[in-house]
From TrEMBL:
GO molecular function: oxidoreductase activity
UniProt similarity note: Belongs to the short-chain dehydrogenases/reductases (SDR) family.
Keyword entries, A-Z: Oxidoreductase
Protein name per the record: 3-oxoacyl-ACP reductase
InterPro entries: KR_dom, NAD(P)-bd_dom_sf, SDR, SDR_fam
PANTHER family registered for this protein in UniProt: 3-OXOACYL-(ACYL-CARRIER-PROTEIN) REDUCTASE (PTHR42879), 3-OXOACYL-[ACYL-CARRIER-PROTEIN] REDUCTASE FABG (PTHR42879:SF2)
Length: 240
């Protein structure tokens, strides 16, 4: 395989205009890949192809992929990162609080994978990376909706591996712990302190530390890894 094939791949990152998604997009860009990001609102960071998409709407996803493919060719690396939270305790959690989170985080991943897989099957190669969370398998009070959606990604990745593994396509889950992003910065100071106390590494991660793992698991070096859950959590989850 020439160097040309290993870099310069067509990469699509959902929810790639901020936080972990943006760090992931930048990591692939630095690798010499052609990167498109989907976003719902806000600005498109410089140097990236931004395609507007709502992962709860299949038609909008199709349009976004079509735009990315016209510019960069069929998507070879898909990173399903788009996600929302609606944290609240079970007894206060509304039907909408639950279904909205699951529809974005879990069904949204299903929709983008379904659209990407057509091209990957034709190419007989592909990398699917699903961004989960330590909370998916560890659990967290007030996050029944979020944890359910994030643990569901493991079932998707493992079933996808069994379906498409023979076609040069891998599907893996990267499960970040607590990362220094806008989302974490909004947590009350006391909450942040209690989280830090439970992390063996004694610190939150930088978004780049997650992005580098995503880039690696999408590389040729990781061709024989599929259906794996890779924690990037400073030891918080410990096999959960």
């Amino acid at each position: 395989m020439s160097n040309e094939e290993r870099t310069g791949r067509s990469v699509l990152v959902t929810g790639g205009n901020r936080g972990i998604g943006l760090a992931i997009a930048r990591a692939f860009e630095a690798n010499g890949d052609k990167v498109a990001i989907t976003y719902r609102s806000g600005d498109v960071p410089e140097g990236l192809l931004g395609v507007k998409a709502d992962v709860t709407d299949a038609a909008s996803i199709d349009a976004a992929f079509t735009e990315a493919e016209a510019a960069h060719g069929p998507v070879e690396v898909l990173v399903a990162n788009a996600g929302i939270t609606r944290d609240t305790l079970l007894l206060r959690m509304s039907e909408d609080d639950f279904t909205d989170v699951v529809d974005t985080n879990l069904s949204g991943a299903f929709r983008v994978i379904k659209r990407a897989s057509k091209g990957m099957i034709r190419l007989r190669k592909g990398r699917v990376v699903l961004i989960s969370s330590v909370v998916g398998l560890y659990g967290s009070p007030g996050q029944i909706n979020y944890a359910a959606s994030k643990s569901g990604l493991v079932g998707i990745a493992r079933s996808l591996t069994r379906e498409l593994g023979s076609r040069g396509i891998t599907a893996n889950v990267v499960a970040p712990g607590f990362i220094n992003t806008d989302m974490t910065a909004e947590l009350p100071e006391e909450t942040q302190k209690s989280y830090l106390a439970s992390i063996p590494a004694g610190r939150f991660a930088e978004p780049e530390e997650v992005a580098n793992v995503v880039r690696w698991v999408a590389s040729d070096e990781a061709a024989y890894i599929s259906g794996a859950v890779i924690p990037v959590d400073g030891g918080l989850g410990m096999g959960h």
